[in-house]
Design brief:
elongated, mainly beta
Amino acid sequence: MENWIGAGFDSDGSDSCGGKRQRLCNDRSADLEIDTNKTVNGFYPLKLTVNGYNQGKTYKNSVFYLNYQKDKGYIEPNNYPLKDNY
């Protein structure tokens, strides 16, 4: 099964952001670990620790877990700040 998991994004140099009447800049990254303490559906969960900022919200060592889902693979939670970031 092939999966894509967002691990970093920086909009500061790619568009107009951060100035007066401009949208907020985004810069966030995630460190990936494999949680070998348990299994979910026969696979280890992935632990992503996020730091940075996204749409005005700051993340400092915020932890998100991705569990394996049968026939879907690892799915990013809806509140994961790097979800669908490609």
